[in-house]
Amino acid sequence: MITNIQIQKIDLRVFDVNFSSVNIAHNINIKNPRIISHLTPFGEKDVLHIDFQININYVSPALGYMLFEGIIDYFNTDIKYKDIITDWNKNEISSCSIPIRNEVANTLIADIIPFAILISQKVRLPPAINLPKINFEKLEHPQSQISAISAYQ
Q: Which H/E stretch holds residue 101?
């Protein structure tokens, strides 16, 4: 369970705001896990304290980027944090660390992307996620029907 997320740094650069379409690349890096004692909903407990970095790049054309850095705390009484840290530092992805990495990464994306969308509006960049483009095409049979085709760009 995620008990804490703190954004400690936001870096934003806008190079251009003229675009017709743009590709957006998302990179997430979770690193440097360590054990700390932290206040959780269950009282003072040891948690896995992990650094993160999320980079949202507006490429093709290069419009800018957003960088979020911070920490996230993971709590679970059923795992041995020392084993996770040992595997993590060896760059080994063990079966016990995969669910933790997935939960941490997905929670970060779910928490930060909506915030990034709000920021992107204020600096005149496209939304920080690839939104579907709707293209209504007429069907050949019969002409009164229209279908919507969604394409991601």
A: helix 98-122
CA–CA gap between residue 123 and residue 11 (Å, rounded): 13
Identify the pLDDT of residue 63: 93
Q: What is the pLDDT of residue 17?
A: 82
Percentage, residues of the chain above pLDDT 70: 81
The class that CATH gives domain 2-152 is alpha beta
CA distance 64 to 125: 8
Q: What is the pTM of this model?
A: 0.80
Which tops the pLDDT comparison, 89 or 133?
A: 89
The CA-based angle 20-131-140, given to 5 degrees, is 85
**Beta carbons within 8 Å of 76's beta carbon, 6+ residues apart:** 1, 48, 100
Q: How many CA atoms lie within 13 A of 94 on its CB side?
A: 14
